[in-house]
Prior knowledge:
Elements: E1 10-13, E2 16-23, E3 30-34, H1 48-53, E4 57-61, H2 80-94, E5 99-104, H3 106-117, E6 122-128, H4 133-142, H5 144-149, H6 151-155, H7 161-168, H8 170-176, H9 181-191, H10 194-207, E7 221-226, H11 234-239, E8 248-253, H12 259-262, H13 264-278
Parallel strand pairs: 3-4, 3-5, 5-6, 6-7, 7-8
Antiparallel strand pairs: 1-2, 2-4
Amino acid sequence: MRDLDQRITTFSRDGLRFDVTDGGPVDGEVVVLLHGFPTDRTSWDRVAPRLHEAGLRTLAPDQRGYSPGAVPSAQAAYRLEELVADVLGLIDASGRERVHVVGHDWGGAIAWLVAGNHPDRVATVTVLSTPHPAAMSRALTATLEQKRKSWYMAAFQLPWLPEHSFAAGFHSLLTRSGLPAEDQSRYAARLARADALTGPINWYRAARSSHVGARRVEVPATYVWGSLDPFLGRTAAELTREHVGSDYEFVELGAGHWLPETRDAESAAAILRRVARAG
């Protein structure tokens, strides 16, 4: 039995080693924080202290393709089933049966999938920016708006070129998307190279061959969306409520995509409300 008061700096799964930032009171309820693309676990650095002040413990991993010890070369190693299993591995490492799961961007998509497919391990789910995957699929089929916003997802299917193009324009691309310069510099130190971007971009490439169902979420859920998001439109945001069968809160902010970095107070408040209502 794992010592529940032991700090977690790494965990291992299937021969891979993931780095983790473990903060807050060790006996607090556990909140797993999942970052998106092209960021890392430090994207939660402004949010996590607000959760700690409320008595919660946070575990923020660098996910597959981002942790130096967890960068498999095969594209198939980035399928959704592996990404979901990584989160379950962290939950196991925490020694808890159930935790609160929070995600942003790609981390939000994985949070929805973990909650939908493994409700026995999830007390609540809070997602920033990213609609439920089934709502996203419906919006891509039904609206030109989401097709236009998601053009890069198709571009990322190409071999080799996306890594080199994104690395060359890392700062300019993220500046146009609204990410603050100080955050860009921090993420660029790790990811602004073509070889470092292959794993993260493989999340997009491998999604099409994945076999994880976008199930209806039956645990209490909160979805926080920025109405100025350049990547994720209103149709998918509003359809998300149809894919949650439990207590649900939709929070619309007059903000862009990078909510953990730019709207940390509102993001933390939404997480705290969701956790409190589960108690």
